[in-house]
Amino acid sequence: MNFFEEESDSDNEAYEGLVESRHISNTTFDDPLICFNLHHEQNLVAAGLVTGKIKVIQFSKDEQKEVAEFNYHKESCRSVLFSQKENILYTGSKDRSICVYDLENFSQALFIENAHDDAINCLYEFGENRLISGDDAGIIKIWDLRQEKAIKTIEENEDYITALKTDSAETTLFATSGDGSLTSYNLLKNELITVSEIYDDDLLSMEIIKDESVLLCGTMSGAMLIFKWGFFGDKTDIFSGHKQAITSIIPFDKDSVITGSEDGFIRLIGIYPNKFYGIIGQQNEAIDNLEFSHDKGYLVSSSSYGELQYFDALFLFDENEDENENENEKSTMGIKNMNQEQPKKRKKKKKKRNKNKNKKNNFIGKNQNNFFDKL
């Protein structure tokens, strides 16, 4: 299967049509979209809006249906996160609060007001009843949700926390920051491992690949910093080629990742050997975030203009491809060679706003005080 055909400079319109052919549908919002997260078992997406509202949407190829709306934050929702362990949703806001929602009863289970002194920018779940939060001032807090309090505060960064992640054993926490550093922290010993060299570049995104032997960081300039495992004090390599900021990195396989960039392109790249394999999608605006659905059937991207875009991702995992084919070529994935000249962006089209005026009521349950007794 060859998704992108060879084309001349005058054939950009045909190329754009091929990009459209993998695009399934959109979800638009009346207010700017700030963040989203996909459920680990169902086709559900949680979207955080600039108003502070959180919308939970069930999606398929044929339709998107709003199933819940929460409205507890006073300012914009900066982070939404489905739990990997329980049927709950975490949210963090510019108003410095953290909220936990029970998705079985569509109710608020926990609200931590003034959780930070500054706006909360990202959340990460680990262990049992543990949540990690990072704010605009570079402060990281580890929360015990049973005790409803922070049990550890990490103050190693001087600017906003952009991403949080642990290794698979959940023993090491990594944080990227707008101050240009990668911080690693031992969660078992509750002690700092190292703060990397300060780079003259905001670190915006990260991912762990190659059986946890390599950590990647995407930057504002478009460079990708490569850290070998155990040597987090300084990069060991740089992958250049993205012309604008790398805002999102997600794993494709153990040797490859998919990146989202401010130029609107979604790219597949390999690490060691470092290689651009091609473009697998695009949107008109800068990409804020990328995620695969739980079954890898959809690739979902977001922009700050209030829109989610759904792409068919099944072609990337074609089970009928020739097993003997050279893996590095990845030609059966149907992707365009990056050495060819890139197509011009499509003209922006006026967005259609959701005209459905039926408002959802806030789902406030009666048994929220007993929710954490079940955990």
From TrEMBL:
InterPro entries: WD40/YVTN_repeat-like_dom_sf, WD40_repeat_dom_sf, WD40_rpt, WDR55/POC1. Keywords: Repeat, WD repeat. WD repeats lie at residues 70-105, 113-153. Residues 344-360 have a biased composition (Basic residues). Residues 364-375 have a biased composition (Polar residues). It holds the Pfam family WDR55. Residues 325-375 are annotated as: Disordered. It comes from the Eukaryota. Signal peptide: none annotated. Belongs to the WD repeat WDR55 family. PANTHER family: WD REPEAT-CONTAINING PROTEIN 55. This is Wd repeat-containing protein jip5. The lineage of its organism: Eukaryota, Metamonada, Anaeramoebidae, Anaeramoeba.
